[in-house]
Write a structure and sequence with these properties.
Strand order of the largest sheet: 2-1-5-7-6
Distance between the termini: 52 Å
Mean pLDDT: 92
Keywords: 4Fe-4S, DNA damage, DNA repair, Hydrolase, Iron, Iron-sulfur, Metal-binding
Strand content: 5-15%
Shape: globular
Protein name: Type-4 uracil-DNA glycosylase
Family: Belongs to the uracil-DNA glycosylase (UDG) superfamily. Type 4 (UDGa) family.
InterPro entries: UDG_Type-4/5 (IPR051536), Ura-DNA_glyco_family4 (IPR005273), Uracil-DNA_glycosylase-like (IPR005122), Uracil-DNA_glycosylase-like_sf (IPR036895)
Number of strands: 7
Number of domains: 1
CATH architecture: 3-Layer(aba) Sandwich
Largest sheet: 5 strands, mixed
């Protein structure tokens, strides 16, 4: 039986470091997704990261291993980061939603399901806590779901990708009015998993790489 109230806020400890947040997130019951997922998949990286990359949610392999971006999409992202001149170790990787949402097919096969607005809102306190601790110069939104989690429902990755956008105040992520601004910029791009699904992977990858180079430029990388 679910004990969630669709709000992770009560599970987020005050004055915790990233290790403390990660430990607390393991017991999060802020939405019903925890019931079927193997475990919480929290962010990975250091508090000194100048770049935070926000994806949608963990996938099947991430859910099993407990780490973000360790499946095929993560390996493609590693390649793109390297080509863009960004060390993965210099970035903090996380997701807008920390539990894997899926449906089962053919018995045991788990098929990704897009998280809903309620689940994104429920999990937002974890993302806010991560960003407050890190205070990145640049946030990369990987895909439409991450973009909407950061910039609100009007965000469209097809129209706003690759363009530096002002980051809303962290406590107004996803709901901030136009013109609100915190330190740092957001650069949106496609999720690397969409590159793997594309009919023209070379073109899709080139677009991802181009957007990541914009983020690299904001960090002062050539």
């Amino acid at each position: 039986m679910s004990t969630s109230a669709n709000d992770a806020g009560p599970f987020v400890p005050e004055k915790a470091d990233l290790a403390g947040l990660r430990e607390a997130a393991a017991g999060c019951r802020g939405c019903a997704l925890y019931e079927d997922a193997t475990q919480t998949v929290f962010g990975d990286g250091g508090a000194g990261a100048r770049l935070v990359m926000v994806g949608e949610q963990p996938g099947d392999q991430e859910d099993r291993k407990g780490e973000p971006f360790v499946g095929p999409a993560g390996r493609l992202l590693d390649r793109a980061l390297e080509e863009a001149g960004i060390e993965r170790g210099d970035a903090y990787l996380t997701n807008a939603v920390k539990h894997f949402k899926f449906t089962r097919r053919e018995g045991k096969r788990r098929i990704h399901q897009k998280p809903g607005v309620t689940e994104m809102a429920a999990c937002r306190p974890w993302l806010v806590a991560e960003l407050r601790l890190i205070g990145p110069d640049v946030i990369v939104a990987l895909g439409a779901t991450a973009g909407r989690a950061l910039l609100g429902s009007a965000f469209r990755v097809t129209k706003q990708r690759g363009v530096p956008l002002p980051c809303p105040p962290y406590d107004r992520l996803g709901t901030a009015a136009e013109g609100d601004e915190a330190n740092g910029r957001i650069v949106a791009t496609v999720h690397p998993s969409s590159v793997l699904r594309s009919d023209d992977r070379d073109a899709a990858y080139a677009g991802l790489l181009s957007d990541l180079k914009v983020a690299a430029g904001l960090l002062g990388r050539p």
